[in-house]
UniProtKB/TrEMBL annotation:
Molecular function per GO: cobalamin binding; metal ion binding
Cross-referenced InterPro entries: Cobalamin-bd, Cobalamin-bd_sf
Upper lineage: Bacteria, Pseudomonadati, Pseudomonadota, Alphaproteobacteria, Hyphomicrobiales
A UniProt-annotated Pfam family: B12-binding
Residue ranges occupied by any B12-binding domain in the UniProt entry: 445-579
Protein name: B12-binding domain-containing protein
Length: 583
């Protein structure tokens, strides 16, 4: 059996003083108080948490929309227009998830010159206030607030704008800003921001999207549920704030999706934020994606009809897989979702929890065991379980793979494979089945060495690519997640790699390709570079604040754009064939 994790090895000698960080946040609350916004006034409530509890009691479904264009003025117009257009149909959204750009995670004084994604950039509290004043919709400031170096200043601005739901705590565990490695400073900033929220006169709901944290990394759903319980311990027991959790991106299998919602509502009775759309189910054909939208939304509407937990439903626009959706596309998705939800009472008798209910029981059992083993292991290793900063940093530094290896389910037959494991396995088999045997043999003979990495925390494509290439017999080397270009180039040089494959999602496809090609050139190496994923970026000379496709520019940089795994494999085969014929 493994020896207990050692605090000194993981965290060093000095205490973290989470209590001091909480106290600093409480002191800041003397100056930063919750501001007004139209949602609170229109609903006559002091917080979104209070409204969620009312909706649960009345068994009313609620709806969530995502919003956030680069230009704040464009976002303000969309904030009002989406509400007004849907309100004319009696379908106004209850809440907006406000998509800040990930560059806003840097402290404001250090943002100039930092790389940007495709999200909204607000320059000060006045921008936050102007945005939330645009319509009577609950403002949810989620991504890139908590869990970031700028947690305190962004949480302060969100409060001044009247936001009573603030997150995204799960990002703390997995998201790394490019060029930023001060995890201790990020931890203390996060705890101080939580102290600020806890000292408000109303109950601020802390948001955590589990799929942005370790739930998307654990291969057992019981581990994901158990870690959600640990998150709740830190936020609710140690800090005294309510924690609303959400999930959904990677939960494709309907029974497992429903079972996890049932289990989560039992281990965390605090109202949830939203059930996110199953975006990994979306493909390149928008019309076909309406079927995907209906499939996950039916599960979510049924779960809230039979077991209301306060989670809002999220009809994701069908163009989400290709680009940032337009206002019209957001409205269309919500109208489709509302029509489905209107019929859930008639559809419910056709549906059942006969399979999901027992599975939820099993998840609660295994999740509780995971939580108990993890907490006992940390205590035995000398960690201070009463210090929120120490708990957060320990969990982040240990990482999901080690946590699951040490504390995951060991009883035979008790683990439940996470949906993304099955989904990626299915996709990998489909890709492999389409490759001719002659091409497979050519790759196996050459066995090229390829480094696989991602520019950000979204590792779905990297996992799929690694699985396919490994089964083709290639020598696959882990280049890292959220890796900087210079680090990736160094890893490619150390491995004498013949190729580098990069998966990207966050709107830096071209700039990362250019930086990587420069770093490889400086090391006097020239592996073939493939860039896949969402190949878009906001271009300063394009005259628009919306991202544009940069595939052609990536090719000009010397890298090869590959929009699918199949394209990358075909390019590798072509290269291998050329090399064999040239001998």
């Amino acid at each position: 059996m493994d020896r207990p994790l050692d605090r000194r090895t993981i965290l060093g000698e000095a205490p973290l003083d989470g209590a001091g960080a909480l106290a600093r946040g409480a002191d800041r609350a003397r100056l930063v108080r919750l501001g007004p916004n139209p949602f609170l006034a229109a609903r006559g409530v002091e917080s979104e948490l209070a409204e969620k509890r009312r909706l649960i009691a009345e068994r009313c479904l609620s709806f969530h929309a995502q919003i956030g264009y680069r230009d704040p003025a464009e976002s303000r117009r969309a904030y009002a227009e989406i509400h007004d257009r849907l309100a004319r149909h009696g379908a106004a959204p209850d809440r907006y998830g406000i998509c800040l750009d990930w560059s806003m995670g840097y402290p404001a004084a250090q943002r100039p010159g930092r790389p940007c994604g495709t999200g909204m950039i607000l320059t000060g509290p006045e921008d936050f206030v102007a945005l939330t004043a645009a319509a009577p919709v609950a403002p949810h400031f989620g991504d890139f607030v908590l869990g970031m170096p700028a947690a305190v200043e962004n949480a302060s601005a969100a409060l001044l704008a009247g936001s009573t739901t603030i997150g995204n705590l799960s990002q703390y565990f997995t998201f790394r800003l490019p060029g930023w490695d001060d995890d201790l400073g990020t931890t203390l900033a996060t705890v101080e921001a939580l102290g600020l929220l806890a000292a408000q006169d109303v109950r601020i709901l802390v948001h955590s999207n589990l799929d942005d944290g370790y739930a998307a990394w654990f291969e057992d759903m019981g581990s994901a549920l158990g870690f959600a319980m640990v998150e709740r311990w830190i936020v609710e027991e140690l800090i005294g704030l309510p924690l609303g959790q959400c999930f959904g991106h990677t939960f494709t299998e309907p029974v497992k999706r429903l079972a996890f919602q049932l289990a989560l509502s039992r281990v965390n009775p605090t109202p949830g934020t939203m059930l996110y759309g199953n975006t990994t189910l979306y493909g390149p054909e928008p019309v076909a994606n309406y079927g995907a939208l209906a499939s996950y939304l039916l599960v979510d509407a049924f779960s809230q009809w039979t077991n209301p937990s306060g989670h809002a439903l999220t009809p994701i626009p069908v163009t989400e897989a290709q680009r940032i959706p337009t206002v019209a596309e957001i409205v269309e998705a919500h109208l489709a979702g509302r029509r489905l939800a209107e019929r859930i009472g008639d559809l419910a008798p056709l549906l059942s929890t006969a399979e999901a209910g027992p599975l939820a029981d099993r998840l609660v059992t295994t999740g509780t065991r995971f939580r108990d083993r993890l907490m006992a292991g940390l205590e035995e290793g000398g960690f201070d379980l009463a210090d929120p900063a120490e708990m957060l940093l320990a969990l982040r530094r240990i990482g999901p793979a080690e946590l699951e290896r040490r504390f995951g389910e060991t009883a035979a037959g008790e683990a439940v494979a996470s949906s993304f494991v099955d989904e990626i396995e299915t996709l990998a088999r489909r890709v492999l089945a389409a490759i001719p045997e002659t091409e497979k043999l050519a790759l196996a003979r050459q066995r090229p060495r390829i480094v696989v990495a991602t520019t950000d925390v979204h590792f779905y494509g990297k996992r799929l690519l690694t699985l396919v290439l490994t089964r083709l017999g290639l020598d696959v080397i882990d280049g890292g997640v959220s890796v900087d270009a210079d680090v990736l180039a160094e890893r490619a040089a150390a491995a004498s790699a013949e190729a580098v494959a990069v998966s990207t999602y966050n709107g830096v496809a071209l700039s990362f390709a250019q930086k990587l090609m420069g770093e490889l050139s400086r090391r006097k190496i020239a592996p073939r570079v493939f860039i896949g994923g969402r190949l878009n970026e906001i271009m300063a000379d394009a005259g628009s604040s919306l991202p544009v496709d940069v595939g052609a520019e990536i090719r000009q940089s010397g890298a090869l754009p590959c929009r699918t795994v199949e394209e990358l494999v075909a390019a590798l085969v072509a290269r291998t064939t050329e090399e064999e014929e040239g001998r």
